[in-house]
């Protein structure tokens, strides 16, 4: 019997202007007020430009707000970057670090991701640490080793089941409509948990949440969320529609 409460997290990526962000946040808050509560925690991660607005709109509700990235340093000469403590100050409880789009677009290494996750923890937030293999790596039979090694390199010092969430996002499934099969997802999630046992011990590993991300939609969520080591979802495209996001939450 697992005691892990599932987390359904929307990663809005670089989408939306003020009106879109407000409508989406208010739409989810309305659902929380009017529909039976889903059996999971709910989180939205708007682009940095909308974090303050969304945090204000969800204030007092059960919908948490997170950032999509933070800098490893607490402050200083880093033009265009956002400090973890600044996100926390706006009302963020979580921050995503090491998303594959940042690893690719900004050449973020495991060491950078680890430092960012440590900054998130220092700011009192929960770090959502993303890992995942490319299609070429999967085809080469390297899936498990790549995920193990990214996890080892990216996990922050001081990590525990309360301050850290892992997100397994196979790069080939992100934004492609090509979702991992339940067997593929469970295999990697179980390997991630086994690696967490090595690093953090069985008790912490047994309580740490591991999310699946990559083309999770209302029509495939139930099957994925029922897997023994899948503790929620990190959702891109489907998180931009209230009805889809809510339907996924209801699948928990
Ligand atoms: O990258 C993702 C979430 O972080 C997944 O995106 P999609 O759900 O659009 O595939």
UniProtKB/TrEMBL annotation:
GO molecular function, one term: triose-phosphate isomerase activity
UniProt-listed Enzyme Commission number(s): 5.3.1.1
Residue ranges of every copy of the PI-PLC Y-box domain listed in the record: 135-222
Keywords for the protein's UniProt record, in alphabetical order: Cytoplasm, Gluconeogenesis, Glycolysis, Isomerase
Pathway participation: Carbohydrate degradation; glycolysis; D-glyceraldehyde 3-phosphate from glycerone phosphate: step 1/1; Carbohydrate biosynthesis; gluconeogenesis; Carbohydrate metabolism; erythritol degradation
Catalysed reactions, semicolon-separated: D-glyceraldehyde 3-phosphate = dihydroxyacetone phosphate; L-erythrulose 1-phosphate = D-erythrulose 4-phosphate
Matches recorded under Gene3D superfamilies: Aldolase class I
Statement: the UniProt record of this protein carries the keyword tRNA processing: no
Residues annotated as binding substrate: 11-13, 175, 215, 236-237
Subunit structure: Homodimer.
HAMAP family listed in its UniProt record: TIM_B
Functional summary from the UniProt entry: Involved in the gluconeogenesis. Catalyzes stereospecifically the conversion of dihydroxyacetone phosphate (DHAP) to D-glyceraldehyde-3-phosphate (G3P).
Family: Belongs to the triosephosphate isomerase family.
PANTHER family: TRIOSEPHOSPHATE ISOMERASE (PTHR21139)
Annotated protein name in UniProt: Triosephosphate isomerase
Native source organism of the sequence: Paramagnetospirillum kuznetsovii
Species classification: Bacteria, Pseudomonadati, Pseudomonadota, Alphaproteobacteria, Rhodospirillales
């Amino acid at each position: 019997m697992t005691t892990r409460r599932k987390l359904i997290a929307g990663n809005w990526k670089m989408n939306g202007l003020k009106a879109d962000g407000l409508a989406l946040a208010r739409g989810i808050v309305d659902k929380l007020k009017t529909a039976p509560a889903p059996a999971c925690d709910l989180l939205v991660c708007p682009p940095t430009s909308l974090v303050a607005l969304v945090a204000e709109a969800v204030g007092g509700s059960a919908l948490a707000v997170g950032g999509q990235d933070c800098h490893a340093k607490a402050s200083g000469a880093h033009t265009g970057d956002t400090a973890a403590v600044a996100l926390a100050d706006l009302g963020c409880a979580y921050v995503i670090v090491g998303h594959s789009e940042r690893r690719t677009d900004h050449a973020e290494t495991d060491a950078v991701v680890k430092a960012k996750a440590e900054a998130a923890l220092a700011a009192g937030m929960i770090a959502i640490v993303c890992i995942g293999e490319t299609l070429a790596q999967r085809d080469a039979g390297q899936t498990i080793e790549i995920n193990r090694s990214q996890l080892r390199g990216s996990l922050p010092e001081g990590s525990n089941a309360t301050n850290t969430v892992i997100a397994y996002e196979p790069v080939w499934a992100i934004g492609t409509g090509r979702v991992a099969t339940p067997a593929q997802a469970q295999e990697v999630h179980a390997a991630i948990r086994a690696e967490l046992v090595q690093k953090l011990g069985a008790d912490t590993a047994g309580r740490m949440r591991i999310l699946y991300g990559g083309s999770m939609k209302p029509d495939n969520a139930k099957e994925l969320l029922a897997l023994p080591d899948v503790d929620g979802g990190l959702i891109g495209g489907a998180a931009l529609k209230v009805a889809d996001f809510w339907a996924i939450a209801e699948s928990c």
